[in-house]
Specification:
alpha/beta; 4 helices; about 35% helix
């Protein structure tokens, strides 16, 4: 009977661990653009100011983007080739896991002689979506957009690490692999 009680708990733990570590990423781009022409960037303040998150989280995101752009060989410039903007959305997910494995009675499932004292587990997670827009500075046109959706870190000491992971996975898609 102990195996039946422990298995759902382990399953729930495995679901929580895997759901917290994954980032779902997608990207889109203008197929007419030569991405080799871009070497420098700057942040697009009007777009960033519209992002509905705290200033602290904005700073974390911008630091992460800056580190990734530098890693890709871009330089920050007053006269950039690309403008970087962000947009964010958040959702709260509520998951209820029902466990009716406890109790005594006749056989499995619902039965008139079955008495159950099962329990429900409620799990709340905040999930955020970060959009990173790369805009051609000269033409002021969007040339690339990356999007990443993931569970957000709740503890302050884990936020920068989580944001770094999300930004890294999004910008891994840049530059796009153009197939002829």
């Amino acid at each position: 009977m102990k195996v039946l009680k422990i298995t759902p708990v382990l399953l729930l733990l495995a679901i929580l661990v895997t759901s917290c570590s994954s980032v779902r990423v997608a990207s889109d781009y203008d197929r007419e653009v030569n991405f080799n022409q871009y070497e420098s960037y700057a942040f697009f303040k009007p777009g960033i100011d519209k992002a509905e998150i705290s200033d602290l989280d904005k700073k974390r995101i911008l630091r992460a983007i800056e580190a990734e752009m530098q890693r890709k060989g871009f330089t920050k410039s007053e006269n950039p080739d690309l403008l970087v903007s962000i947009f964010t959305k958040t959702n709260e997910n509520i998951n209820i896991y029902q466990n009716n494995m406890m109790g005594w009675g006749y056989g499995w499932g619902w039965h008139p002689w079955y008495w159950g004292s099962g329990f429900n587990t409620v799990n709340r997670t905040s999930e955020g979506t970060l959009y990173i827009d790369l805009i051609d500075a000269e033409g002021k046109e969007l040339v690339w957009q990356g999007m990443g959706t993931a569970a957000l870190a709740e503890k302050v000491d884990k936020k920068q690490e989580r944001i770094n992971e999300i930004v890294s996975e999004i910008l891994e898609k840049y530059p796009p692999e153009i197939k002829n």
